[in-house]
Amino acid sequence: MRFLGKHLEKSPVHARMIPFFIFLGMTFLQGEFGEASRFWMYGVKTFVGVWLVYEMWPYTREVRWAFSWEAVVVGVVVLLIWVGLDPYYAKMSKPPAKLWDPFEQFGQNSAAAWSIIVIRIVGSSLVVPPLEEVFYRSFLYRYLVKIDFLAMPLKQRHWLSFVVTSTIFGLVHYQWLAGMLCGMAYQWLVWRKDRLGDAMTAHAITNFLLGIYVVWKGAWIFW
């Protein structure tokens, strides 16, 4: 039974906005139930995210994974930009007082810490891409141009919407400049392939590799 189905089915806007904003809203709950909730709430959010993708799947036909060499290249290049560019531009806010470090919270190499890490990497790689790409690259990009956004082909280029959507995507990230360039790269993929799936795959590759890098280097600032 799809609990959100009747709300998502009635409007293509609802189908792309409601799951995204539920997921986003849960982000703001991380840390609101004690220090440890910064971590376990991410796990809850990830499992809710799986349910949200399941709910919206029948009503968002463009949310289908696709693989291409371009998606792989963009995914890797965005990771290099995200990490390599970081020391060279000022952030718009101070870094968090406490980094998102499960080892510090639960103990070095503890089962709890590794469980949270695995959930985060899996969630950021498989749950975040469809929810974010359908909102930014499919819905918002086209809606800023045309209210009847489904009538606008995904490959249609509109430079103002391209810049605005990528800027918004960047500003919701601490690494804002990398986020903007990331949004532009994913939108370019949508243009090139005339489908959303390659951008989802590139996003998944970026997030997966970033997760590996964060754990490998202890670079928790990227999480």
Q: What oligomeric state best describes the polypeptide chains here?
A: single chain
Poorly predicted runs: none
- SS strand fraction: under 5%
- What's the number of domains? 1
Evaluate the radius of gyration. Answer: 17 Å
Helix-residue proportion: 55-70%
The span between the termini is: 34 Å
Protein topology:
Elements: H1 5-9, H2 12-27, H3 37-56, H4 69-84, H5 102-106, H6 111-143, H7 159-171, H8 176-193, H9 197-217
Helix pairs in contact: 2-3, 2-6, 3-6, 4-8, 4-9, 6-7, 6-9, 7-8, 8-9
Protein model, in words:
- The protein has 223 residues and is mainly α.
- It has one domain.
- The protein is built from nine helices and no strands.
- The protein has helices spanning 5-9, 12-27, 37-56, 69-84, 102-106, 111-143, 159-171, 176-193, 197-217.
- The protein is globular and about 50 Å long.
